[in-house]
Amino acid sequence: MAPESGRGAVERNDVIIIGAGLSGIGAACRLRRRLPDRRFLILEARHAIGGTWDLFRYPGVRSDSDMHTLGYAFRPWLAAEAIADGAAIRSYIEETAREEGVAEHIRFGHRVTAADWSSVESRWTLTVEREGESSLLLACDWLHACTGYYAYDRAHWPAFTGEEVFAGTIVHPQFWPERLDYAGRRVAVIGSGATAVTLVPALARTAAHVTMVQRSPSYVVSRPARDRAANRLRKVLPERAAYAVTRWKNVLLGQFFYRLARARPGGVARRLIAMVRHELGADYDVATHFTPRYDPWDQRLCLVPDGDLFVALREGRASVATGTIEHLTHDGLLLADGTHVPADIVVTATGLEILLLGGLALSRDGTVIDPARSLQYKGMMLSDVPNFSFAFGYTNASWTLKADLVAAYLCRLLRAMRRREATSATPRVRSGSVTEVPFADLSSGYIRRALSSLPRQGHRRPWRLNQNYALDVLALRFGSVTEEIEFAAGGLRTRA
Fold first, then answer.
1. For helices 399-420 and 22-34, angle between their N-to-C axes, nearest 10 degrees
2. What's this model's pTM, rounded to 2 decimal places?
3. CB 163 within 8 A of CB 186
4. Residue 246: strand, helix, or coil
5. What's the domain count of the chain?
6. Would residue 6 count as lying in a domain?
7. 115 CA to centre of own chain
8. Which end of the chain is more exposed for a tag (fewer CB within 10 A), N or C?
9. Is position 1 within any domain?
């Protein structure tokens, strides 16, 4: 592509997508299908496609939602397993990129560190770092961030008293050593979230014993790894039709359960705990180890395919210790109640560190843009920030469901700009018309730690997050594409 003349001959594209994970590849596919004449690039800091699914390589890594909703709407998931492992998901993303013709638009090893909007030129100029080379400037008319929601180079890794005396190995799942040998060894996994309940049964297959050490329990739900209805539908319907029906079935069932949990938390909690008691038997101390202190969906539920965690517990290959860690010892961990958990390896499944937009520094005409001082617009744009969008998935459903709707809406908005001959589109809040509320309503630790850095949301549309796929389909796929958007063209401004 020929560079643009002037300003140091900066290469200019219509759209630049940051990130080659599930969201970024999906957005590029949507763009290529719906606006094939647009020039676009995907800038990926790493050296492979996959994002999260390329980064995480710990034992047992898998999806925590079904692939009929985590997969792309335009490309059916055809494997028999609805709960897929990391390698299968990574292959699915890579194959999609190749088959849809977007793989050649990816530039690996390109980390976008800053983006400045020029009001005069109506374009973004990106500062891009490249390994072993000088930094690069790239320009685009529209910038779409598909960077996920957490830092890739660091994690939430609290220090524990006594780490210096522990004789074994301490690892975090986000940075799993490739050659770590845990066969025949005692492992303590600190945590009770999705990563912990995934690791424990995977490690327990060959470890001497695995103990899940948790400060407090989470809700854990067993679900079949294979979706029987989906596999049956594929036998009687065309692939795409069967996939669409399964996708909507799972979306609606998920939304029904979520709404039920919010409306009747006590009854749902009792049912979830009863299901665990059925898995583990009447003699197991479910009250201590699997009875959370919060209501269902105050935090995400933990999914265990085919009850693999419960199987490991029943067979004695794994156990749970609940309590506060006092300190590490030479050969394990000591809890505040005096319980000693023996361990040769300690795995700190203690969570992620949220990093909005991958740490991208945004500015407008040289003035810093702080996303935390902005309102989110339709879960994909920021108030008063032109020609910028981002993918941020649901907290109560599969990430890709929202990312795919955002990409489709972006294509609609770009078409609307062309019809109006507009060079910019900016969400604008009518003065005094929106009451601000927090960005997310989950009580998970990683959310609480990051609330001050996240954009706010409003009490009404289009400034409120629906957290509801059906409502977002109406709003993003069929609703107004110009609602509270200010368009600008050659100095003339129009407002919808």
1. 40
2. 0.93
3. no
4. helix
5. 2
6. no
7. 22
8. N
9. no
